[in-house]
Each structure stands twice: as C-alpha cells, then as structure tokens.
Amino acid sequence: xxxxxxxxxxxxxxxxxxxxxxxxxxxxxxxxxxxxxxxxxxxxxxxxxxxxxxxxxxxxxxxxxxxxxxxxxxxxxxxxxxxxxxxxxxxxxxxxxxxxxxxxxxxxxxxxxxxxxxx
Length: 119
What we know:
Elements: E1 2-7, E2 10-13, E3 18-26, E4 33-39, E5 46-52, E6 58-60, E7 68-73, E8 78-83, E9 92-100, E10 103-104, E11 113-118
Parallel strand pairs: 2-11
Antiparallel strand pairs: 1-3, 3-8, 4-5, 4-9, 5-6, 7-8, 9-10, 9-11
C-alpha cells in the first residue's frame, strides 16, 4: 500500500510561482516513477510531469516544459513540482501518483491540492 499526500497549492497571480509537495509513505522502496497530474474544471485529468525515482530522469507535458520542474528527495520520500511563470490555464487540482509513462499507475487518488492562477 502507498499513501500519497499533496500539498502546497494556493491562489497566485499570473506569472507567479508555487511549489507543490507529494509526501509518500508505505512501500516507497518499490517506486519506479512518480508523476504529477492535474484536473481542471470540466476537463479530464491530464499528465503534467514525471520523474524516475532512482535515476532522477524527468519528462514533461509540452504545456509545462520550461516552466515547471519536477524533483524528488528520496530520503524524505517526497516529490516536488516547482511551478514558475504560472498561467490561468494552469488552474486545476494537482495530484500525484505512481506513473507508467504519462499514465497513472493507480486508479485511486488522494485529495489533491488546488492551484488557482488569476489573470
């Protein structure tokens, strides 16, 4: 069992920054890759970014490349998403999950963290 808790969301003006955190507990030693996903009102959940847990390689959705940076702290079992140059279209609930490519591994989701970007 893996438990994931997202935090760090908030309200920010366009052009601003936020840093999200995803704290993991449980069988974290078996993580292969972890990812961030987001769901905007009225839209389907979409892939944002992912990181290979051991090697640290990263990959991003085209919409966030150059603006978002994913990272992890293996010792703390925590993953981060630094979001810069935020746009109103980044407004969504952000979730973390184990990842297989650009897809979530698990069907269940945590509570997520709300990010709202005002114009």
